[in-house]
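Example record for the data management plan.
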Amino acid sequence: MYHKFRYSDIVRISDEVYLVSGSNTNWVVVKEGDSATLIDSGYPADYERLLASLVAIGLHQGAVKALLVTHAHNDHIGAAERLRVLHDVPVLMHEEEVPHARRDFLQQVSTGQVLSQALRPGVLPWAFHALRAGGTYHVPVLGPRPFPAPGPLDLPGAPIPIHTPGHTLGHCVYHLPNSGVLVSGDALVTGHPTSQLTGPQLLPDMFHADRERALTSLVVLGGIDADTILPGHGPAHYGSVKDAAAQALQRAEPNAVFG
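Corresponding structural encoding:
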């Protein structure tokens, strides 16, 4: 096991929603009775830790009705194929992310990009950690599925996918209106080892496939009615999504006008 599971890694957001911290990345469990929706799955090295987090919440592997993917970077789909093959868990995502998850192409920060930023605080320790956790492993999802239809999904929590391209072309966030929660993936984060900021922000530029679209997606997020943000990186944020998205946009583009 890459990192031993700790009960303190789990933050109970409500009776149904849990944020779990993995290896510098998060996943979310949405519980409904003895079944659950899993959103993202950490690095490849987080697999055993992910299973332990389900048990700690009172679930077993077979309780997961689907894995919803915000985007197909290694630190978010690390357990996806094993869950699909070993536990028959469907892996769902936006249709534009399906070929990325299959690894028809790879839309992920390159070694060269990381090395070009090596003098920035936190970059080299993060890169070493990412390598150990499986950040460069080949982990395609061989049977990814697009969402079956627009609107709420027929899964625990009735999550609503919202396309927020930029970080990747098929990036999606998930709105849980019954819980007042937005699972924001990497469209909006609250911290990262390569950033000196805390609170709502975009990831550093090298991580985005299309930074301009990532900025536009912040405006999309600002229209979502939720008061808790569960990001792919960093702690939960309590407060309106509109205000958080506006803060992230102002930090990324000080002269931008929100809305």
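Summary line stored alongside the record: Residues 7-252 form a domain with the Metallo-beta-lactamase; Chain A fold (CATH 3.60.15.10).
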